[in-house]
Each structure stands twice: as C-alpha cells, then as structure tokens.
Amino acid sequence: MSDETMNARRIFSSPKAISLLLGLLGILLSWWLAGVEARRFQSESRSNVVQQLGTVRAAVESSLNKRIYLTLGLRAFVSTHPDLNDQEFANFASALMAEGNGIRSVTLIQDNQISDIYPLQGNELAIGLNLLEMPEQRNDFLRAIETKQPWLSPPIRLVQGGEAFANRAPVYVKSDDAAENERYWGMVSILINKQELLDDIVDGLPDSLQLAIRARSSQDQSILYFYGDKSIETTEPLTLDVNLPTGNWQVMGVPTDGWQQRSPASSVIAWFGTIASIGLAALTFLLMRSNTHLRTARHTAENAADELSRKNEDLEAFVRTASHDLRAPLRHIDAFCQILAEDAADRLNENDQDCLNKIQRSSGVMSRLLASLLAFARTGCEGLAMETFDLKQMVHDVVSRLPAQDVDRVQVGNLPSIRGDRTLLPQVIQNLVENGLKYNNSEDASIQINATTSANEVTITVADNGIGMAENVIDRIFKPGVRAVSSADYSGSGFGLAICERIIKAHHGKIWVESKVGDGSTFHVSLPTV
Q1: Global confidence as pTM
Q2: pLDDT tens-digit profile of 364-397?
Q3: How many angstroms separate the Cα of 372 from the Cα of each of 211, 278, 490, 500?
Q4: HSE value, Cβ hemisphere, 13 Å, CA-based, for 480
Q5: Are 359 and 280 in contact (CB under 8 A)?
Q6: Radius of gyration over alpha carbons of the chain, in Å?
Q7: Which DSSP helix (H) or strand (E) runs through 253?
Q8: Do the Cβ atoms of 309 and 392 come closer than 8 Å?
Q9: Which residue intervals of 298-403 are DSSP H helices?
C-alpha cells in the first residue's frame, strides 16, 4: 500500500475529518431541505394569487355582464319601438335601472346625437351632444356602426360631471322601403358609475393582494389603468384575461408585500439544521476522541474493545450514508455514553466523568431540538386519515400517559365525538396539557378541558392556572422557535405550539390563546364538524 493511500486513510479516519464531513453533510442537507421548502412556499404563494385573481375576474365578468345584457335588452326594445315617446322610454328605462345597481343613466342616441336620457335631472347638459363630434368617442362609434356590435368603454369623463363606464350598442330597424333591409337608427347607452362598479368588483378583496385592472384604449391602443396603477408592472405581477362580449380587460395582482423568496419555515430549517449539524459534528469529535483514548488505555479489555470497534464502524458507516435522519447519530452518542459509564466507571477520573456527563446532557438537548425541528417540518405534509371518534376517550388516553401525580390535576368535561386524524389530534391535546402543567408554579395546578358544539364546528378549550403569558408574546407564540419564558427557567424547544397550529390548520381549523401574566392561559381549538 502506497504512502499516499495510507495518509489518505489516516486523514479520513481521524475524528476531525469525520466530524467535519458529518457537519458539512448536515449543513448541505439542511439547506437543501430549506430550498425545497422555499420553492414549495413560492409555488403556494403564486397559486394563492392566481386563486384570488380568479375570484376578482369572476366578479368583474359577473358585474359587467349583468349590466351589459341590460344594454342589449334596451337595444332590442328600441329596435322594435323606434318611435317610442318620452314616457314610454322613461317607463322602460326606470324598469331597466331597477334591475341593476350602479347604473347612472339610460340614454337614447338617435342619429348619433343624444335625444333622450333617463333620469333627465342632473343630466341636462348631455342632451343634444353629437358623439361623432367628440374625438375620444368617434372611432368607437364608427366601429360599432360598421360591425353592429356593442362596446364597453373604459371610464370616460362626462360633460354632466363625474366618470362612468359607457356600454353602448348600435340599433338597426327595418327599413320602410324594403322589409329585408335594415337602416341605422342610432345608439342606446347605459352609463355605469365607475366607483360603484369597482366597489362591487373588489368587495371582499383580501388585504394580502395588490390589484390592478386595465384595458386597451380603442382610440390609440394605449393601456389604461382604472384600478391600481402602472407601477405594478415592475413587481412581476400575475395576469388573467377577462373575457367580455364587448372586449377584453386584464386583472393583475401580486402579494401586498411582494414575492417572498423564503418562508419562515425554510429559514428555521436552514439555520437550526446548520446549528444542529455543527453541534453534532462537535459532539462526534469529542466522542470519537474519547473512544480513541479509552481504546488505548483498555488494550487488555478485548470484549469492550471489540464492542467499541463495532460501534465505531457503525458510526463511520452512518457518516458515509447520512441523509435525512439527523437523529441517528445522537442515539449512537447516547449509547456510547452508557457503555462508557457502565464498563469504564472504575477507570474514569473525575474530569473524564464530567466530560461524559456533559456529552450526555448536550446529546439530550440536541435530540429534543432535532425531534422538534423534524416534527415541525413534516407535520401536515402527509395526508390526514380522517375518521369520527370519541373525543372524551381520546383525552382520557392522553391523560393516562401523564405521570401519576399529574393525572388527578386534569379535569375533563363532557366532550362530543369529533372528526379528524386520530394520530395527530392527540399530539395537540398532549402538548397543551403538558405545557399547562410544566409552566405552572401553583401548588394546586389544574387543567380544565371542555368543549362546545355548534352547527359547523366543535371548539375545545384547555384552561390552566399557570404562569400565563405577556400580551406581546401571545401574537407570536405559535411561530416556530418562539417561547413565552426564558429557556433558563423552563426546558423546551419552542416548537410545540407551532406543531399544534400546523396540525389544526391541516384540519381546516383554528387555534388561539387567551392569557395574562399570573392568571393562567386558555387555549381554544376550533375544528369543523364536516
């Protein structure tokens, strides 16, 4: 075997090399998982915007079409009653306006000149206007006469004041000289109040969406924005076409705070994974170095040496194949510590024993942190196994697993049957109950579990008489890694409530808390009944 090969083997079998490799693999895996989560988050954000834009598009089409068809009805009436008098027109226009809100006026434009308008009051200035003499409307008029098709203009400024969408349609009547011929009579028009139409379209629009609506001018083919503004084009908006009988509009949207490249979960996975990998590499280095020293000191203990050698081979095999299971090395670390404590207790000095205890404590902390992180990352990723089961029995099963001194501290009221995942929901109850007992300084610590039922949902309450939470923490308590108290006072990873929220959201439910410092906390879990 060459010297280069032996040197390479020596390097890659050293504690430093293996620890470094393990740390790098863990970091790479963490950031890869963070990238997967970021891409999932970006895809979900775009899907949400498309869904919201689809709702807006449907509102636009619905709001406009129901008014456009009123114009077509008016055209049909005038084409069969070209000589209608003022009263007949007023009666028909009044009935027409009653069919749709937001209609400002109904207009007859005989021979391209406004001949009658309803209501007349407030619109007197429009009577007598020849729309062919208005440059901004002339092209639309001529095109409508040629194609015999109606059109909807973008908002125009009216001579009588204000802005409105003008939906106009050409009217043709039977010619007197030939029954099969038609002659151009003029136009009919419905003016739709701009603000009322836009209010109707964007009613219920979520604050999380920045919206713009635009159309192309038939006069000069320029783009006109009549809701939102042109600056949205610089934000990479998603665009949907709105198909109308009288032309095409577009709705454009982006999230209000822009396209976020990373989700909170991806940052948690990346940074906590990095920290965990560095800690794991350090612990591995300490463990392997200790094992090396002990194997040298215990050369006469063949059985112990063989066991350590086998464990080291297992550890090295794990380093070469480490992927997503970051908790496996921690289980190995804990096993090593137990072997050392049992087999070498009489040969460990006080300093060695102290190091061994520190390794065990650090391993326990890292194991809990990784367990919480991985549980948070995968919660809700798999499909739910929905079934109907007895909530009270489920709660009793959770309580029965508590330490004996805590079982009587939990009072369970009358609970109904619920529908949900029988595996995930107990995790929520267990977490809330254990938190209520852990964050509790009262000698008479107690937990009250009750439920109320309505037609559409079941609301479960878990109330404790513990230390409570400050108001500035309540709004953030369900975020990953957020804790209500100092980690020096109470153990925990800060992921428990984040996991609870993800489980409840996967059930299309809600979870929230009411709390004051010193007055305990009451958690509410609302689940749909169907």
Answers
A1: 0.45
A2: 655 655 555 555 555 555 567 889 999 999 999 9
A3: 39, 17, 16, 12
A4: 21
A5: no
A6: 37
A7: strand 247-255
A8: no
A9: 302-321, 328-343, 350-378, 391-400
